[in-house]
Design a protein that fits this description.
The complex is a heterodimer.
Chain A: E1 4-5, E2 10-14, E3 19-25, E4 32-38, E5 45-51, E6 56-59, E7 62-67, E8 72-77, E9 86-93, E10 100-102, E11 106-111
Chain B: E1 5-7, E2 10-13, E3 19-24, E4 31-37, E5 44-50, E6 53-57, E7 65-68, E8 75-79, E9 88-95, E10 104-105, E11 109-113
Parallel strand pairs in B: 2-11
Antiparallel strand pairs in B: 1-3, 3-8, 4-5, 4-9, 5-6, 7-8, 9-10, 9-11
The chains are: A mainly beta, B mainly beta.
Amino acid sequence: DQQVKQNSPSLSVQEGRISILNCDYTNSMFDYFLWYKKYPAEGPTFLISISSIKDKNEDGRFTVFLNKSAKHLSLHIVPSQPGDSAVYFCAANNGGYSTLTFGKGTMLLVSP
Amino acid sequence: DTGVSQDPRHKITKRGQNVTFRCDPISEHNRLYWYRQTLGQGPEFLTYFQNEAQLEKSRLLSDRFSAERPKGSFSTLEIQRTEQGDSAMYLCASSLGHPEYGYTFGSGTRLTVV
């Protein structure tokens, strides 16, 4: 069963606009959520995380929002840049120092 | 610090052959993870080490797979009697453990079984 779901395989956005990437989860025991970015032929790169006790975390152009009641989180990128074009993975940590469970990813394409 | 290094970057092997991959983590990271990624999927957990101890193995890790981390430094992942279904990107990552900071991944080893 897929505990972390990214239901949009792809998203296209124009440069300068907002990109919103969504993620749903089923396991209420997850205590940290993370976003990774992956370019072709490279490993995933950590972007931003959020604790389950918070509802928002911001780092520069990247903001992650968490809605625990809906078991939903989203990554906002403002403003979007062509260099943001990549596959974005949502991941969740199942308490303490356990391992990460990843979603299938969303490919973001930012056009000039 | 040069990040997480994986070798080789690409490996093509015939079905039935054995292959071994190496991962050198960030030196101060005590945790090391192996993940596998296939086309259209996210990374799937295989196994992880804290120092030299292998603490968890996924059910994805069949008895043809074995991982080691001697002396708690580099790690190797061996696949015996490879099958076409083993074709994937094998990713290694390391961390200090706290989930807030995530893992640092290597660039992966692309395995193709023909």
